[in-house]
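Reply to dn_fold:

You asked what the input looked like. This is it:
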Amino acid sequence: MYNIERGKSGGVVLKCKVCPHSERVNEFDDRLGSRRTQAAQAMLKHTLNDHGREPMGRPMSKALESLV
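and this is what came back:
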């Protein structure tokens, strides 16, 4: 679905395996929770919307799932 890499500026970048789309973890807001979780959710949404694929596995932990 996506790869996780270190960006050139030292941040973490999630890159789609199918297209050039990427999500940079440092572009998300700490006040909304884990930046990495937010980036992963954005990447899962991209996979579904742009590639028509349902994500495999659980995109969030059971603890977070209970809050939703």
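The first helix runs from residue 35 to 51.
Hope that clears it up.
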